[in-house]
Amino acid sequence: MDVRSLTGPPSIRSPPVTEPTVIEGRLGRRLNNALILEFRDGPGDPFGTAVQGGGDGIGRKLGVLFGFKNGGAGTHTYTPVEGSPVLVESRERAATLLTRSDGSPVGQIERGPTCIARRADGAEILHFTDDPAGAKTLDAFRLIVTVPNGDLVAHLHVIRTIEGWSLGRELVDDVIWWGRAGQPLRLPLLGTSLQLQRPLTPVEREIVLAACVDLAIGLRPYGTAMG
After folding, report:
1. Quick one: which of 206, 226, 214, 219 has its CA closest to 48?
2. Ramachandran region, residue 113 (left: φ > 0; alpha: ψ -120 to 50; beta: rest)
3. Does 201 have pLDDT greater than 90?
4. Are 61 and 52 in contact (CB under 8 A)?
């Protein structure tokens, strides 16, 4: 199958698909009502988990505790099973900052029609833009992830309904789907689904998962369809 036929205009160059991978981030709640995003790339336990932060101030923390605050601006923590946690500071009308727990920078994501993810040294590493095949459906917001030269890295779906979990399966025919549709929850979104078109570097993987946290828990709009 020629993946390029599914990715819109010829300007988006798709590398050959080798070992395609789906990464699901399913949204739920902890006992204290904070949102939690669990990442899996196959059956079994999550390989990483992100938890909603309440932001500064007792009022915001109480808002999370009593269920008044369904995501949004704040500092959310992504903790992988292997590796160091990343703090995802989702901010209003400002770039999302990614740092370690000791304050050392990981990078940042600047939002707009093209969202630009930068490494700690300021170099562009990933772009997030509306999917040219359709950026918004009833079931999901749809984005593409590319490197700065336009090569396709992944399709990223922000899931709005349980039917949205099946989107993108035609892009990765060889994947054995482990997910279950589940039941609708009282959540702002249901999570994220990534269909990777090639293996990610460690830095790309960390930043793209932080972007999923920013989207699903931080509720930051990427591209134009989510505004």
Report:
1. 206
2. alpha
3. yes
4. no
If you average pLDDT over every residue of the chain, what do you get? 82
Query: Whole-model pTM?
Result: 0.81
Yes or no: say if 35 and 73 are a contact pair by the CB < 8 Å rule: no
Token readout for 160 is 């709005």
Tell me the pLDDT tens digit for each residue of 173-196: 444 344 444 444 466 789 999 999
Calpha distance 20→154 (Å, rounded): 10
**Residue 17 CB contacts under 8 Å (≥ 6 apart), including other chains:** 1, 3, 172, 197, 198
CA distance 14 to 145: 11
Helix (H, G, I), strand (E, B) or coil at 220: coil
Answer whether 172's CB lies under 8 Å from 195's CB: yes
Task: List, for residues 64-116, the tens digit of each pLDDT value.
Answer: 443 445 678 999 999 999 999 999 999 999 999 999 999 999 999 999 999 99
Q: What angle do CA 130, 136, 139 make, to 5 degrees?
A: 130
